[in-house]
Amino acid sequence: MSKLTQNLSTDATEPQGRQANTMWSSRMAFILAASGSAVGLGNIWKFPYITGENGGGAFVLVYLLCISIVGIPIMIAEVMMGRAGGKSPINSLRDLAQRNGLSTRWVGVAWLGVIASFLILSFYSVIGGWAISYVGHAASGSFAGADADAIGAMFGGLLGDAGTLMIWHSIFMVTVIMIVARGLKSGMEKAINLLMPLLFFLLLVMVGYAASTSAFDQGFSFLFSVDFSKLTTAGVLTALGHAFFTLSLGMAVMIAYGSYLPKNVSIAKTAVTVSIVDTLVALLAGLAIFPLVFANGLEPGAGPGLIFQTLPLAFGKMSGGVLFGTLFFALLVVAAFTSAISLLEPVVEWLEEKKGINRFVATLIAGGTVWLLGIATVLSLNEWANFHPLAFIPAFEGKTVFDILDYVTSNLMMPLAGLLTAVLVGWFMKREMVRQELAMDSEGAFNGLMFVLKFLTPAAVMVVFIYNLI
Ligand code: PHE
Predict the structure, then answer these.
(1) What is the dihedral of CA 6, 11, 13, 19, to 10 degrees?
(2) CATH of the domain at 182
(3) Residue minimizing CA distance to atom 6 of ligand 1
(4) Do residues 172 and 129 make contact, with C-beta atoms less than 8 angstroms apart?
(5) How far is ligand 1, taken at its centre, from the CA of residue 281, in Å?
(6) Distances (CA, A) of 406 to 123, 161, 400
(7) Do 307 and 49 contact (CB within 8 A), yes or no?
(8) Can you say whether residue 19 is alpha, beta or left, with left for phi > 0 and alpha for psi between -120 and 50 degrees?
(9) Please, which pLDDT band fits residue 16 given cuts at 50, 70 and 90?
């Protein structure tokens, strides 16, 4: 039996302190769960529109580079910290700091991530709600024959209506709570095992359709022909920031998921697999979307409205638009769910451990609080659209509560947590402990990874971080 099939078929060997029913049942289960976390709105909503805004191929190339030199090393570091600690992110970091003779202040890295994931989920759920409501729009044929104004009004109407947004946000959160409350194996693994294959299926159907349109070549070359004259410094920084978001890094999520990873699984190979899956989904989403945009003479650089305003125009014009539009937004909903599940997990795991309450209650408390917080995002889109609570700080001028949450988590907390993670593993943890936990086949590869974590990753993140501050 090859090593891979062996890993796929053997059951978890548990580290100390963990019950068998609180471990992923196989390497494959972890890969699906971590890919589920990574593949989300970032891949299907954000990646296509930032690629569109930044001119295509050259941006994609830089993004791939960022995934390789920043994303993959940090993912390896996070999963490693989680598995070595074997507890919730906060307690894993406390444990690791003690075992390495370091200050317990390093726990701050986990706190940063746990708080960020909590805050992110509060608005992620609202956007997930838009996607659910668009499944309804697409299925009821309301895109058919609509012009840009009508579609714009549909989107504006949704955002302007706090009551409707609340309903979708609540449906989204209740579903996430129900899945997470049932526990790792009977809730999360089961849902993910169903949702991920569905996601790949829907995505392939969409790419298949795009391939049948006249503009597939044009979409393909938009994504893959590299023209550096279209690339700006801001584009490079966007690519790096997005590498974090899309791989779910800097939010304690991979530490939490790593804590459930069986000891016999190779962390490096697994992290590389997850990153490849995530990247493939983003590229396939681009291949599904841009041909439709070009075939209908629409603008690739339309910004955040690309899939909610531009794409519905294409669905409204094409034959089979009701079916493909519905499938597309269903795909978005599925992707959002598997990410949202992972965003709730770090807090739930901590509450279970710290407060000794059972998982069901912990999930209710955490999920309920996130739901409440989400109301601020819902209102930011309408009633509070002109409420700029931190306007006295220049960076927050004109920003609503939602804008502030998004900015602070994605541009400050995530890169800072990522930077500290690389520094902790690269410079402060005992090299021998890292080596043992990673158990890489080749010493050369291990040394290479440590070099990247020590120098390249911190340098790259620092550049983005400083740029974001100014
Ligand atoms: N990676 C997810 C996406 O691309 C978002 C996410 C970020 C999920 C951080 C979990 C943690 O949409």
Answers:
(1) 160
(2) 1.20.1740
(3) 248
(4) yes
(5) 13
(6) 8, 21, 10
(7) yes
(8) beta
(9) very low
Residue 264 above 80 pLDDT? yes
Residue type, 334: V
Rounded Cα–Cα distance for residues 324 and 144 (Å): 12
Model-level pTM?
Answer: 0.90
Q: Classify residue 21 by its DSSP letter.
A: G
Cα(255) to ligand 1 centroid in Å equals: 14
Integer Rg of the chain from CA: 22
Alpha carbons 269 and 241: distance in angstroms, whole number: 23
Grade residue 21 by pLDDT with cuts at 50, 70 and 90.
low
Give the whole-angstrom CA distance, residue 324 versus residue 344: 31
Angle at which helices 72-85 and 89-99 cross, to 10°: 80
Show Cβ contacts of residue 261 under 8 Å, excluding neighbours closer than 6 positions. 23, 24, 30, 79, 82, 83, 267, 270
Rounded distance between C-alpha atoms, residue 246 and residue 75, angstroms: 11
Report residue 19's pLDDT band, with 50, 70 and 90 as the boundaries: low
Packing angle of the helix pair 107-139, 359-380 (nearest 10 deg): 70
Find the mean pLDDT for residues 210-228: 93
SS3 383: coil
Helix (H) or strand (E) holding 94: helix 89-99
Q: Which residues line ligand 1 (CB under 6 A)?
A: 37-38, 40-43, 117, 245-246, 248, 251, 253, 339, 342-343
Q: Which residues, 6 or more positions from 366, have their beta carbon under 8 angstroms from its beta carbon?
A: 118, 344, 347, 348, 351
Q: Which of 48, 37, 469 is nearest to 237 (CA)?
A: 469
* Amino acid at site 260: Y
Atom of ligand 1 nearest to the CA of 47: 4
83 neighbors 15 (Cβ within 8 angstroms): yes
pLDDT tens, residue by residue, 136-159: 999 999 999 898 889 989 999 999
Residues 6+ apart with CB under 8 A from 2: none
For the chain, how are helix, strand and coil distributed in percent, rounded to 5?
80, 0, 20
The DSSP symbol for 303 reads G
For residue 57, what are the domain limits? 3-469
Residue nearest to atom 11 of ligand 1 (CA): 248
| Number of alpha carbons in the 13 Å side-chain half-sphere of residue 344 | 35
Task: Calculate the CA 58 to chain-centre distance.
Answer: 23
> Measured in angstroms, how far is the CA atom of residue 46 from the centroid of ligand 1?
11
39, 245, 249, 275, best to mutate for ligand 1 pocket (most atoms within 8 Å of CB): 245
**Ligand 1 atom with the shortest distance to the CA of 342:** 10
Domain count, the chain: 1
Task: Report which DSSP code applies to 45.
Answer: I
Degrees, nearest 5: CA angle 418-244-374? 100
